[in-house]
Structure prediction request, 452 residues.
Amino acid sequence: MRIESFRRTCVALVTVSLVSLGMQAPAVAGVISTGEAASAARGESPRALVDATIARADVQGKLAELGVDAAVIEGRLAALSEQEIATLAEQIESAPAGGDALAVIGIVFVVLVILELVGVIDIFKKT
Amino acid sequence: MTGLRLAGAALASLLAGCAASPSLKDGLPASAPRTIELDATPFFPQQEFQCGPAALATLLVASGVEVTPNALAPEVFIPGREGSLSLELIGAARRHGRLPYVLDTTADDMVAELEEGRPVLLLQNLGVPQIPIWHYAVLIGYDAERNLAILRSGGTERLEIKWQRFAGTWHRAGRFAFTTLPPGVIPAHADPARFLEATAGLEAAGQRDAAAKTYEAATARWPGEPLAWLGRGNVALAGGDRAGAADAYLNAIRLAPDDVAARNNLAELLLDAGCLGESRRQIERASALAEGTALESSVADSRARIGATEKAVAHCQFEDRDWPD
Prediction:
């Protein structure tokens, strides 16, 4: 019984900390954020609220499609600005994803090309 | 033949990438040491596809955060891409209370960071432009006499690689590199605009304490930058410190009387503090200044709200203060 209530307390604590992690800092309404002021100074117009909401939903959907656990997506996006989420929405499928899975294949390929060009081997078909 | 032509093109661009960069000795700033190696930098051998979490953990632990690649993987790894995106590494660094500072695209910034004792996370293309192989590694030093870059990379704890080859892989990956700064630390070589935008990112991620400390350092380092004062005011206001926020906004306006954001936010602060008359005066000024700028609609929203307020919520908190014209 005691263990059960301890477990519940733990779950509640973790939930509260995760939820607060995902929240933006509460501010006085209508304050222009520092990021917004910085991008305005560069001549970029801030994204409309509707655009930002669409971009966020778009990224959430794509991350889920790409196999990211739905429970962590919200928290991942909470650390990015509206501008960054919009960039992510555009590039999530094309931006470089460092992973290094194919390094060995790549190095073998480059070595083969060099050997081919200097005439040590002859594996590329020439017709 | 097509295969060979493609291969030839690939090799040509590989060589072109190499030819573009000078040897380390020739390119190194005169003031920089001939060799640096941050050998206390931790090493996390990467597991399959996990060079992003491993490289980020290396940086974060070096900057005093207790974290492991396994703990970071759910924050940055994308199974469908078999890797991690740079923007998500940036976001994860913020979540752990560090300021990710994206470096300028010259190698000088990397050298300067190493000089200040911070390892540099960077993206490499180990393949060729046509067949890219993306990889994150951590630069921990260099040796100008032997013309080498020294890395923590993948499964290799200490990888020595010829400087031009290293610079070529970085160049082909768009010259992306960043370091993680503890709150309040500003690199000696930092560019104010770049640094303040990075801090705004930390602020937007909800890291208010870390952002407050960093803005405070920024106003000390660059007292003439209105954006540093605006940021300092915004985090103070978000934390409920109206007096501190008012001082910061006033400094921004003193430096730049036409600063729309500082005027707008001062008006919001005054409304919140019960000083309705002065709030109206400031929002009218902001509104006139904002005309035709990117902030026009934000200011219009504030102006409508302040205009619709008929009675102050409380007695004015700042009765006997002077406000700028």
Q: What stands out?
A: Chain B touches chain A through 83 residues (CB under 8 Å). The CA atoms of residues 236 and 273 of chain B lie 14 Å apart. Strands of chain B lie at 35-37, 77-78, 83-85, 99-102, 120-125, 134-143, 148-153, 156-162, 177-181.
